[in-house]
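Teaching assistant's notes for section 4

Start the section by putting this record on the projector. Ask students to predict, before seeing the second block, whether histidine kinase will look compact or extended. Collect guesses on the board.
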Amino acid sequence: MTRLFLSLYLLLLGGSFLYWTASDAMLAHRHQAFADQYTTRLARGPLLTTSRFLAQRAPETWPAIMASLSADYGETMVLKRWPELHLPDEDWDHLHEEDIFILDDIFERPGQVALHLVHGTDYILCYGPMPEPAARERLDLGLQLGWIAILTAVMLIWVFALYRKLKALENASLAFGRGNFSARVKIADRGYLGRLGATFDHMATRLEDLLQTQRELIQAVSHELRTPLSRLAFSRHFLATAEQPAQRQELLDDMQRDIGGLESLVDELLQYAHLDLITQTTRPERIDFLPWLESLVAPHRHGHDRHLDFSCREPQTVPHLEILPELLEKALNNLITNALRHANHEVAISVTATRDRVSVHVDDDGPGIPVDQRARVFEPFVRLDASRNAAKGGVGLGAALARRIARRHGGDVTIAESPIGGARFTLELPTAAVLSDHQAEGTNT
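Reveal the predicted structure now:
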């Protein structure tokens, strides 16, 4: 509120100062000349007539004559000796050079005074102070009306711009309330309302993300949980009728696998659902990226028959990064686990870096992913029907979760053909510390 008031107050104050300064500068000289002409025309007749009349009389009679003329002129015309006026010497020169000489505010009352030097003496006839001409009053009135018009125009422009922004905010709020969760304000302004609109857009994006996550979780619960629960129900039914110990043990083993699958699914669902909460409550850490990545890769070298290779091109160019280690570890673990799951013999992990980006490439020598299917890999709960299917394990959240985490860091995950024959997943991260900004802005997934 204070910022809004000050901006309007300074706008009006600055506009008033500029207007009156400019108008005074443009009109002062013109008005002075006009006022001098106006006063000269009014005073010339009375001054010259009185001066000729006095010239025909003795100087010692002039005070009495001026006293008798006061009934006609009142205080408008007076006779003064030069020393009484206390004027500078250059004005005395002007009085000798000009019949009528105009000065401003030489008496107690403000206004212009016309002066005439009685020939051959130091007596000066003073006519005035003269009232402001009506044209000046009209001019002042015109300036005031002009200022009011300019002020009104400025206020209309300012209010209209404010109205448009408030209307955009109102329309977006109404649309959002009616269920249009893609509604955004999009105010291109860095001022108070611009920040308010950006806050609304951020809130709308976060809510849209949360609602999308909720829909995906509902889809997962209705689809992904149905199959193992059905198998558990069938196994329980057959377990009640099984007579052979071997048959009962086989059914128990199947049930245990289904329970393990359900636990894994629930864990994946919770991690996917809680990603937004983690990014809001966890502070980023600045880490030396290469040693951190090497320690992350090390546990994946055991427990399988694939060869895992880790390399870094130009390691001296890999800077420290500001990340959420827990989340980024989850993203890279998902990519490495997927590669090990689908590789025939080999998985290669490599790091490249430029001035503004760091890229982690995870390659496998498996069957690869067709170009037309690569976008679907990042859809939650999608498992391709070819060699990368449910039989390989997983619930279809690994790549989707990795991409969401990368985007929370201002990066991304992409798919390409691997140099060793299979699929290449590349996780890119910015080298600048932009994580906090992206957390504040949110990212559509």
